[in-house]
């Protein structure tokens, strides 16, 4: 890459990647539906990549893209050329290009795509019957071409400003890459000023670039003066005016082509279009962090203001209110700028599905619905791999081979549905296949065998709970149940990733009918609404989204059975846990009325006994720094308006862990 | 006064490159468009001295956009940005009223030579 090109590298990588991703998507689509606009769009993508790569001096990429363009062009003119193998080749080319682009991004030498180039060249030759055209690449900044000298023109004869006929000789520079077009441009420009005769070589030869020595001669009848013709010729690059001589005027009147009036006809319906800029994600993270800090700082200020004398406080608070409103608006705008559509993850899924299915000799249709829903970038990043893993799981293990499906009286083509829907604060992603389903009994048996659950627990376990056994480490990769192509990621990793985001993971399945994975996720992760409670002289926060209610009850009015206590809440009895005990903090044994927070754990609703309810607060959640992140049941830390740092609890995990320990 | 340029290309990469070339050549890039439709709108709005026009673009090709711009102002200076292998398209664009063309991958000197000539600055 020429040195001065390095500043374009970032944008090259971004844009080329986008084009290649789009190409990949369209290639998968192409097999189903080869309509013109699709093929045109593919051509544009290949063409753009070719142009950019050539400009950057990436020869291999430029050639790959050029071959791609060739093949798409062929398909455009003759659909019968399209085949599964050809799509395979184009997909492989897209991958190879992607690899080249990534290598460029990492500033390392890209592997030479010799094998694929050979295949491409072979294919283009086989389809067209001739070798593909050479690709022009800007390898090194070439020397500055010698500036054309001022043309030696015969001094215009006296009276040359009259209408007249001129013999003109021109030469197209030998360095010109497209002499045909250059010559045609000259011809066109001159013919705009008058009428052309005696053109040598004739126009067809000019257009096709057959111009011996670059020499063009013609006669022009025009009202233009010599100096006008001169400057016209001078204003065309790569063309030298060799001579300009007046010949006898034959026609008194000369047609001027310059008389078309500009019809300023306004076409309506101007489209505004969204103006966008690209921004580095680190910068966005920085904005978010600072907008969050700003929120905290203004909340701090409010706390501080409480100590001010009353007469100043009103004015002070007014200022703080305004500051807080601004900070909040800023924060929410920054948050929304971090939102990305889930399509940024799911766009590659059709390709993955196709490749996997083809490899396993299966036929699978993937239908994606609703993936335009926008989620925080942090969530998008975290669910990307889990979703991919689940998809693989569906194709590898869910969907049966066509024969088996026929035997099971299903169509030969399997179907996978990826549905996304948004509720107020959550996004629910469902991935569903119509394959063989999971076997709850088999899962239980394996879990029992490995001593992960007791026979008693297995007997009591619902199917839905049993499916989640597949998420236990050790079972998730058990053969025949949810084995995952040896990728080393089990369903346990999926479940963990979802839960780390404050989400919920569920599996529903029916034997012989299919499996549905449900990922219930928050829209954003960074700001949470907390219910604050005092426990053992400490303040902790519980995400409001997990809190179903709060109540106060005299401890004497709790129902007990054996060693468990229950709280009557909305016509059901909820098991009561001391939050302090779950956290292993010293419990302040208080008698009389105590507040309880009703929340949802893995196994259903529970009531958590706390010392005092302190109200709600919106906070910026920060991830726990190592090694605090190892403590189960904590999902993050935050700083309250008062400046007090608090732990934010992950209730389901806290319960799970606390109960397992007790 | 610096000549005002509108840069039309569907690739930001290409636009950036052309912009840098123009800036180095003392021209002022007053606007950008990423497709033919936008190009025509921007042309009407900005009335640039020069428009560089990519050929293969979504929604409306550079050739159609050139035709529309020339319809708007037959003195408009439109320079096509083409690749090798697009000769017949460039000629079509010239028929449609394009004043000149530059060939990708761009070399700064070539581009400026074409542009300065077409603007009559030499």
List the helices and strands and how they pair.
The complex is a heterodimer of chains A (662) and B (122).
Chain A: H1 9-32, H2 36-56, H3 59-77, H4 84-105, H5 114-128, E1 164-172, H6 179-191, E2 194-200, H7 203-207, E3 215-222, H8 226-234, E4 239-247, H9 281-305, H10 310-337, E5 339-341, H11 343-346, H12 349-359, E6 364-369, E7 374-376, H13 377-398, H14 402-407, E8 414-422, E9 426-433, H15 440-449, H16 455-460, H17 463-468, H18 491-500, E10 504-510, E11 514-522, E12 527-535, E13 538-543, E14 547-554, E15 559-561, E16 564-569, E17 572-578, H19 579-583, E18 593-601, E19 604-609, E20 612-620, E21 634-639, E22 645-649, H20 651-661
Parallel strand pairs in A: 6-8, 13-22, 17-19
Antiparallel strand pairs in A: 1-3, 1-4, 2-3, 5-7, 8-9, 9-11, 10-11, 12-13, 12-20, 14-18, 15-16, 16-17, 18-19, 21-22
Helix pairs in contact in A: 1-2, 1-4, 2-3, 3-4, 3-5, 4-5, 9-10, 12-13, 13-18
Chain B: E1 4-8, H1 12-24, E2 28-33, H2 36-46, E3 50-54, H3 62-72, E4 78-83, H4 87-95, E5 100-104, H5 108-118
Parallel strand pairs in B: 1-2, 1-3, 3-4, 4-5
Helix pairs in contact in B: 2-3, 3-4
Structure description:
- The complex is a heterodimer of chains A (662) and B (122).
- In chain A, the strands form five sheets. Chain A has a six-stranded mixed sheet with strand order 14-18-19-17-16-15.
- With 662 residues, chain A is an alpha+beta fold.
- In chain A, helix 1 runs antiparallel to helix 2 (36-56) and helix 13 (377-398) runs antiparallel to helix 18.
- Chain A contains 20 helices and 22 strands.
- In chain A, 41% of the residues lie in helices and 23% in strands.
- Chain A has five domains: 3-128, HPT domain (Four Helix Bundle (Hemerythrin (Met), subunit A), Up-down Bundle), CATH 1.20.120.160; 164-247, Alpha-Beta Plaits (2-Layer Sandwich), CATH 3.30.70.1110; 281-337; 341-522, Heat Shock Protein 90, CATH 3.30.565; 527-661, OB fold (Dihydrolipoamide Acetyltransferase, E2P) (Beta Barrel), CATH 2.40.50.180.
- Residues 140-162, 249-274 and 477-488 of chain A have low confidence and may be disordered.
- Chain B is of the alpha/beta class.
- Chain B has one domain: Response regulator (Rossmann fold, 3-Layer(aba) Sandwich), CATH 3.40.50.
- Helix content of chain B is 45%, strand content 22%.
- Chain B has a five-stranded parallel sheet, with helices on both faces.
- In chain B, strand 1, helix 1 and strand 2 (28-33) form a beta-alpha-beta unit.
- The longest helix of chain B has 13 residues, at 12-24.
- Chain B is globular and about 30 Å long.
- In chain B, 63% of the residues are buried.
- Chains A and B meet through helix 1, helix 2 and helix 6 of A and helix 1, helix 2, helix 3, helix 4 and strand 5 of B.
């Amino acid at each position: 890459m020429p040195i001065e090109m390095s500043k374009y590298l970032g944008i090259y990588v971004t844009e080329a990647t986008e084009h290649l991703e789009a190409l990949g998507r369209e290639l998968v689509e192409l097999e189903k539906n080869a309509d013109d606009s699709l093929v045109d769009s593919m051509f544009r993508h290949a063409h753009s990549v070719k142009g950019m790569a050539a400009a950057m001096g990436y020869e291999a990429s430029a050639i790959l893209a050029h071959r791609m363009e060739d093949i798409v062009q062929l398909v455009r003119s003759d659909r019968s050329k399209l085949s599964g193998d050809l799509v395979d080749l184009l997909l492989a080319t897209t991958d190879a290009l992607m690899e080249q682009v990534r290598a460029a991004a990492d500033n390392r030498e890209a592997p030479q795509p010799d094998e694929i180039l050979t295949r491409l060249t072979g294919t283009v030759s086989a389809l067209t019957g001739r070798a593909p055209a050479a690709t022009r690449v800007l390898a090194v900044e070439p020397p500055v071409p010698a500036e054309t000298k001022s043309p030696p023109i015969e001094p215009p004869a006296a009276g040359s400003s009259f209408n007249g006929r001129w013999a003109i000789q021109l030469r197209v520079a030998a360095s010109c890459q497209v002499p045909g077009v250059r010559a045609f441009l000259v011809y066109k420009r001159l013919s705009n000023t008058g009428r052309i005769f005696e053109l040598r070589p004739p126009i067809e030869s000019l257009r096709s670039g057959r111009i011996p020595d670059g020499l063009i001669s013609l006669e022009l009848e025009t009202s233009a003066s010599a100096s006008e013709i001169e400057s016209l010729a001078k204003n065309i690059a790569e063309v030298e005016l060799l001579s300009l001589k007046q010949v006898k005027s034959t026609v008194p009147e000369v047609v001027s082509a310059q008389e078309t009036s500009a019809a300023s006809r306004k076409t309506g319906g101007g489209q505004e279009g969204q103006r966008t800029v690209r921004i580095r994600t680190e910068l966005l993270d920085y904005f978010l962090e600072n907008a969050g800090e700003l929120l905290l700082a203004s909340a701090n200020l409010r706390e501080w203001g409480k100590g001010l004398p009353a007469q100043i406080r009103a004015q002070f608070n007014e200022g703080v209110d305004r500051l807080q409103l601004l900070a909040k608006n800023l924060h929410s705008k920054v948050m929304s700028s971090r939102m990305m559509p889930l399509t940024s993850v799911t766009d590659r899924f059709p390709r993955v599905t196709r490749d996997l299915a083809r490899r396993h000799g299966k036929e699978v249709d993937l239908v994606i619905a609703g993936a335009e829903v926008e989620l925080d970038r942090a969530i998008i990043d975290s669910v990307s791999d889990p979703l991919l893993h689940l998809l693989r799981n569906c194709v590898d293990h869910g969907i049966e081979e066509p024969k088996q499906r026929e035997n099971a009286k299903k169509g030969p083509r399997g179907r996978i549905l990826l549905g996304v829907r948004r509720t107020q604060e959550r996004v629910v992603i469902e991935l569903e296949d119509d394959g063989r389903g999971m076997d709850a009994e088999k899962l239980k048996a394996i879990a029992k065998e490995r001593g992960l659950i007791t026979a008693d627990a297995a007997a009591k376990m619902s199917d839905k709970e049993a499916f989640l056994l597949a998420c236990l480490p050790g079972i998730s990769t058990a053969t025949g149940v949810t084995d995952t192509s040896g990728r080393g990621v089990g369903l346990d990793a999926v479940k963990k990733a979802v839960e780390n985001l404050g989400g919920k993971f569920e599996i529903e399945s029916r034997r012989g009918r299919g499996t549905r994975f449900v990922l219930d996720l928050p829209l954003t992760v960074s700001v949470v609404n907390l219910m604050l409670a005092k426990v053992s002289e400490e303040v902790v926060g519980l995400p409001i989204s997990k809190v179903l209610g709060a109540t106060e009850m005299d401890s004497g009015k709790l129902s007990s059975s054996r060693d468990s206590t229950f709280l009557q809440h909305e016509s059901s009895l909820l098991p009561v846990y001391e939050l302090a005990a779950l956290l292993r903090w010293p419990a302040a044994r208080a008698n009389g009325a105590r507040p309880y927070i009703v929340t949802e754990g893995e196994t259903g609703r529970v009531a958590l006994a706390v010392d005092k309810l302190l109200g709600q607060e919106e906070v910026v959640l920060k991830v726990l720094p190592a090694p605090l992140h190892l403590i189960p049941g904590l999902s993050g830390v935050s700083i309250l308006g008062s400046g007090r740092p608090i732990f934010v609890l992950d209730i389901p995990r806290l319960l799970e862990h606390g109960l397992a320990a007790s | 006064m610096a000549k005002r340029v509108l840069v039309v290309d569907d690739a930001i990469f290409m636009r950036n490159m052309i912009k840098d070339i123009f800036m180095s050549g003392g021209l002022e890039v007053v606007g950008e468009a990423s497709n033919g439709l936008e190009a025509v709108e921007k042309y009407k709005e900005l009335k640039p001295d020069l428009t560089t026009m990519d050929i293969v673009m979504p929604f409306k090709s550079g050739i159609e956009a050139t035709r529309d711009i020339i319809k708007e102002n037959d003195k408009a200076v439109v320079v096509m940005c083409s690749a090798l292998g697009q000769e017949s398209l460039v000629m079509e664009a010239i028929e449609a009223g394009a004043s000149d063309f530059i060939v990708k991958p761009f070399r700064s000197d070539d581009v400026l030579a074409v542009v300065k000539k077409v603007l009559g600055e030499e």
